[in-house]
Amino acid sequence: MTFLRENKLLFGVIGIALAAGLAVCGIRWNIEAGAKTVDYVYDYNEMVDLATQSDHDISWWLSEFKDMGLTKTGLQEETLLSLAEENRGVEAEMLCDVEKDAAWRDEYPQAVLDVIDRESTDDYDVIIKIDNDEMYDFVSRAFTERFDSDRSVCIPQETGGYVFVNGQVSDTLYRESYKINEADDDGFKNIVDVAGSKIMYINLGLLPEKVKMVEDAGITVVPRTLAYEGWNDTKFVKDVTEQYEVQLGGAPQYMILASDVVPGYDDDTEFLSNYINENNVIIGVVENNNQRQNIDPDGLDKVIEACDYNVVRVFSVWNYIQYRYEYYGYDGFQEIENSLFRPVIERNVRLVYFKPMKEKDNDHAYITDADEYREMFEGLNSRFASHGFTVGDASVMKVFFVPLAVRILVALAAVAAAVICFCTVFPVKSRKWRYGLFGAGAICVLGAFVVAPNLATLITALAVSIFVACLIVIWFVRYAVECRDELGQDAPVGRILPRSIIALIVTTVSGLATAFLMTSALSSTNFMLELDIFRGVKFAQVAVILFFMLMFFVYYSYLWGDKKITTLTAGEVRSLLRAKIEVWVIGLLGVMAVVGYIYLARTGNETDVEASSLELLMRNFLENYLYARPRTKEFLAAFPCVMLFIYTMVKGYRVLSFVSGTAAAIGFTSVINTFMHIRSPLELGVARTGFSLLFGLVIGLVCLLILDRAAKLVTGMAKDPGNRDGAESAAAGEGGSADA
Length: 740
Hints:
By secondary structure, this protein is α/β, with parallel strands linked by helices.
């Protein structure tokens, strides 16, 4: 209570900020709850490949997927490369490759040679040969209507024709360079080979026959248009949208933007933005394959802002997910189903871009059993329904931005928490100094939000996740001290257990409150859709754990000696630096360092330290049978260690106190970390924390009783005259040395 009285005004600031933060979180909760419709789009090209390997044609598969509830397919615009691969009578070569044949001029009509001689200035040009009228009309129309007239020349023939395209060095694609050597292995020359031209990949339009076949099957076309710099001005995007009207009878429902640049970006994004707004087209942004943020074409942010965030996140079934058939020992599609379930439930994805399943040991072999797909989607839809989701047109989140006043309040709360932490560690007893520090911090906060409001918001969230979490650490250590003083070392486990449960509940609820305070600063649409991202998660985790270690040693003399001042003094720092450290302590610290590295390396999606198959299967089991899967490190380690810390502090087991307390600090950071991923719905985070608390409480109870029983056995052996050596060993293990 003295601690609260000394800092009542600072805690008052934190309380006011928390109230404002909870109000913001309530708004966000309602926004997330109101956007629970998920849609499917499957890839047409891969469906054609699947049909080729099966006993049925593409029309049959389109009908099957429609019966499964998948009524939209992503149809890629054609390119010179795709037309050549489909044997549609189109060949395209760069002039540098054509001229490698000494007799190349004999292969072309005089009209083509005249154009080459007149137009060609370098080796980067492309010559397109087309052997039928249908494809010639398709290709020549695209180059005439989509690109500047000086970029190409169309040369019709009696049947088909040619198109000469004036390429540039910026259009050329190269293989990685390699070196050729002389006989003595000395380097001779670096070789750079031309691999092709960007012109082979520019989008020419949708093939009418494909559109007709898809629509005749009752499937809606979602066009996939890719744009490339240098071939992407207003003329291009204007023709693209006009062709949507001609081919599809209107604007598409979704426009998935996932190429290098958004259509029209070579000039500006105004035309595309106006088209999207006028036709209420939903923008699809594709999550990266590492599940972190989204693919970010140049100009995307401008289009999204101009279209008032009419956006949904898209999960694409990447190749490595297609191969998860019979994965982790499952007998079929189960892990692929899990991979489709998680982004919708956990990462605010509302559009799944599906690609057919493949054999895990064969990069090219598709799963051609339609019943497998049917069963998977039935199970997936059922799991969605259990979380309140329906399948239909993808729902767009209501636009919301956290008011500046709330963000400033949260920042002031972080300053208040930082001042309290500083004054707890260092001997600052004067209220004038405390409030002076707070006032200086408040001025810095206001200045930061004036100069760089976006950066200030990110720093605010990071500061809350560190300093307010450190307040939990302070309470945790002080509470353990009080339990030790009140109960005494001989206290039975029955008296310690209620205190341990209180510690676990208070720290978890406090961690949850801190998480709400932190996330309230970032609960804007751009963060919920992960258009912007919060970084510093690992730094915050390490900082709080290190602060616990500091607090443990600040209270060290107080806990085990006669110290009455609970702040760090210069003399204690000198004593700590001069302390003798035994070899076993160094070994223990080494083990803790390895465990800490593994813990941090496993945090997040970009890591080489993967969970074991057994652990992943356990996660899947919990995910399938609980509303939300609790975090493994919380309920198996951190939360039980909160209870063990209270027990070991009361009993005076110094080493075990340090180890269990450090592990318990992971629990505070983990709860907050759950909410640092702003893309994850609040509802899910609360449910996860609740299950972690429940399971952690049960496991902690069992661990505490086992430890108490083991301690009694060791004590009994120590009292046995025949086990005097054991007594000495037990005493060393429990009490340790003052130097340690």
